[in-house]
Structures are given as structure tokens and as C-alpha cells.
Amino acid sequence: MHRKSFKFKIIIPTVVILVALVVSINIFLSIRFSSIGQFLINEKLSAITNSLDFYLNESEAKSNVAATSMALNSGVIKAVREHDTEELLHLFNVACNTYRIDYFAITDGEGNVLARTHDPENKLDSIAYLQNIKDSLEGRVSSYYESGNIVRVSVHTGSPVYDTDGTLIGTISAGVRFDLDSKVEDFKGLFNSEITIFLGDTSVATTITKDGQRVSGLKLNASIADIVYGDKKEYMGDAEILGERYKAFYKPLINFKDEVFAVIAIGIPMAELQAETNNSIRNGIILGLCGLALSIIILYLMISSISQPIAKVSREMTHIANGNLNIAIDAKGDDEVGNLEKSLKKVAETLQKLLSDINETIGEHEKGNIEYFLDAEDFLGDYRILAENIIELASFGIRDQLTGIPNRRTFDNRLDMEWERATRAGIPLSVLILDVDKFKNYNDAFGHQQGDMALQTVGKVIKQSLKRPIDFCARWGGEEFIVLLPDTDSAGAKIIAERIRAEIESSIIPCSGEDGKRITVSIGVGTQIPLQDSNVDDFIATADAALYKAKETGRNKVVINEENA
Prior knowledge:
Elements: H1 2-71, H2 74-82, H3 85-99, E1 103-108, E2 113-116, H4 131-137, E3 142-146, E4 154-162, E5 168-177, H5 181-191, E6 194-199, E7 202-206, E8 209-210, E9 213-214, H6 222-230, E10 235-241, E11 244-254, E12 260-269, H7 271-303, H8 307-321, H9 336-366, H10 381-398, H11 408-425, E13 429-436, H12 439-446, H13 448-465, E14 472-477, E15 480-486, H14 490-506, E16 509-511, E17 514-517, E18 521-528, H15 536-552, E19 558-560
Helix pairs in contact: 1-3, 1-7, 2-3, 8-9, 9-10, 12-13, 13-14
């Protein structure tokens, strides 16, 4: 009895001290975490503001380059002179993609619209009231943030168009829009934050939702409006939107009159920080209790006069906890301490094998061997569950989640491996780039869910069309797919491409209200025997150019890049 009492005389005060220490540490860490979280959010917001300034400057520069370049295009000059709206729309729709511009507006020499890429049916009205058009009609190139009747908020550049004899015959306005929901969604993906565009004190586009619906007609806080509109200054600080707290930044957009006419607002929800703080407190308590329990066990064993074996085991556990699995554990004895050391050795060996298998799996995936995975059957209990979860996560990382075939990152790894192999062996390498024809029309007609089913079918058909184990297909992005054909010349690549095209055309794609719907693909083929100074990007570009030609010349066909065939 005396011995037991002695143990508890040491254990109880120690437990009290440890509990107080765990509580104190958790309180300190919670306060510290909240402070650090505030700091990180402020830093993130500062980084976003810098990125936004860069984006706006880049947008202005793109609009300037687009407008001035197209104003010198001989085909444009001819079409403006002849008021050929159809040709203008053709030229400038292509130019939108080339210069990454949202829209072009082309006028005659009096400011009357000949063509709009963003509203093709609306023409012959005058936009001479816009300052960039006024300047262009006077022979000057100028860029402004402005609001028009159709495009509410944008940055655009106007450039005069001169005939071959030097006569001013029209103007070109190239712009980047900020007033569309699709644009703010792009901003949200770019900046990882909520975005709202205000025209005056009312929103025209936002990513903020309520009850699953995008909010419309948000009103700008009056005190913030006084700063950004009244003082023409940026605002960074706290803001409340629909009852939620945000760390926010408001960027005023100033027009040619030196007046603020619109505002770009960026917001980071503070609810995320609060959730992280709560998680930190909860995890700290759990970890603290686990540490407390472990400390009591170690303390009890030390009091039982086995301090040296426990100290040895403790050192080994510390190594493992710090990530050093390559330690020699000499497990001896059949008592509790000996069995503990044997279990620790088994844990270390299991973790070593798991780490080795993970590294080997990663290495194989980086080579493009996506069928290789570690074997979960080599592990027991929770380690097997962990291994299975790792396999599942690895699969997510290498496959496209919609179609189930490899994703673009996995394709890039496989391409690098096959490119090096083809370079060493001096053998041809072929690539097919496939694009589903008129897929936007298909989506518009049958909905995105049906569109996803169509893409899944296309991916399945492509995969089944490849007969060799070394052939490789992936989703390239959107409605584009790509196929890599090692040791295949252009003739062989064309046969495979034609087979894929025909099988996709003959596949029945289920549709709402119909028994089936045929869709087609255009395919560009590129073939090359890589040399040491060859460029893999140029190789892909050859197939992409062939694809562009296939789509230009009627779609549902295979075109081989003749320069590399």
C-alpha cells in the first residue's frame, strides 16, 4: 500500500501540472494562431492587390496591342473600307483569341458601328460618345476605363484605321470586360477570393452567393463609397456583406474625366479564419490529451524502476516522431518494455516500407506509368487503410475526374519520358489532338450534364481505340483530348486517328428527349523524330496547327501537319 501511495503522490501532482500546461499552451497557441491568421490574410490581400494592379495593367496593354495591330491589318482595312460586316466579324473573332481580348468594336469614319464581336446583331448605332472613339476619330490612340451602353465596365483602347492613301476611314476599339459573371468567376479562380464589380453604388457582377444563388444588386457601403468615389482612394480593411465579415479591398476605376465610375471589390471571408481557429483549439486539446496520457504511462514506468529501457524506447520514438525512420532498433526481452520496443520496430519498418512504396509510386507516375501503384495488401489494419487512401489520392492526381482517363499533368510526364526515349532511339513519335466539334452548341442544346456524359463517352472510345499498351491518351482540357503514339510514323498515326474519328462518329451519345445524337471530332496529327535540339512545345504546336486546319476546313476530319509528316 505504501508503494502505491508513493506512486500516486508523484503522478497526481504531475498530472495536474501537465493539464495546466496543456491548457495554457492551447490558449496561447489559439491566440497566436488567430493573430497569425489575421496577418496571413492581410498579406494575402496585399498580394492580391498587387496581382490585380498587374492584371489591370496587362489588360490595358493587351487592348492597346490588339487595337493598334488590327488597325494595320490589310484585310481589316479592306473590310472597313467596304463596310463588310461579315468579314470584320470573322477577322475579329479570331483576333479575340489571338490577343486574349474580350471584344472588338469597329466603326466607320463617323463613329457608327460596323461590327461588334460581343453583339454581332447590333450595328449602325453611333459610339462616338466614347472617349477612346473620339480620340481615334481625331487620329489618336488612347486607352481608358469607360462605361458604355452595352459594355458596362471595361478597359479599352481605340485606334484609328487609315486607308492606303492615308485617309481615316474608321476606328477599332479593343477591350477587356469586368462586368460579366463569367469574368468575376475567372477573377475568383485567379485570386482565390470573392469578387464584386460595382457600377456606381450597385453591383453589376459578383461571385457572392446566398442560398445557392448568385446575389444581384449589391449596394456599396456608404462609408466605403465616400472613400473610393469621394476621395478617389483605395480602401483596404473590414467590410460587412450580407451579414458576413470580410477582409476587403476596393479598387476605384477612373475614367477620362478623372472621375471614379466603377469599383472592383475583393473580399476574403473571415469565417474561414474562425473555423481554422476552432479546429486548432480542438486539435490542440486532442493532441494535448494524447500527450498527457503518454506522459502518465512513461511516468508510471519510470517509477517502477525501469527508467533506462523506457528512456531508450523514448529516444527511438522521438526519432520516428521527427521523421527519422532509418534507425536501428535492437528489440530485446519479453517483458512490457521489450514488447513495446518490438512493436516500435515493426511500426518503423512498416512506415519505412510505406514511405519507400510511396516514393516508388511517385517516381513511376512521374515517368508516366500511371498503372503502377503500391500494393495495399502488403500492410495490415489501419496501415492498409492508409495505403488504400494513398492509392485513391494518387489516382485523383493522375486521372481526369470526369472521364477517368489520365489528366494533362500525367500526359506531360508521359510525353517527357517518350520524348527522351524517341530522341535516344531515333524513332518517330506521333501525337493526336482531338477537339469535339461544336461542343458549345451541344451543351447549349442538351445541358452541361449531358455534355459531361458525351465527354465521358468520347474518352472511353478513344481509350478503347488504342490497341498497344504503349499508346497513351489523356484529357487535354475542356472538350479537347490528346493521344501519344510512341514509335509511330505519320502513316500509322493517320490510321489510328481515322479509326478514332470513325468510332466516335458512330457512337451513340444519349440525349434528353432523343434516342441518340451523333457528335464528331476534328483531329490534328503531328509526327516527329526528336533531335537533341528539338522542342517538345513545337512538336505539340504542329498537331495543334493541324487541328486548327481541320476545324477551319469543315470539321469531322483528320489533318496531318505536312511539314513534319
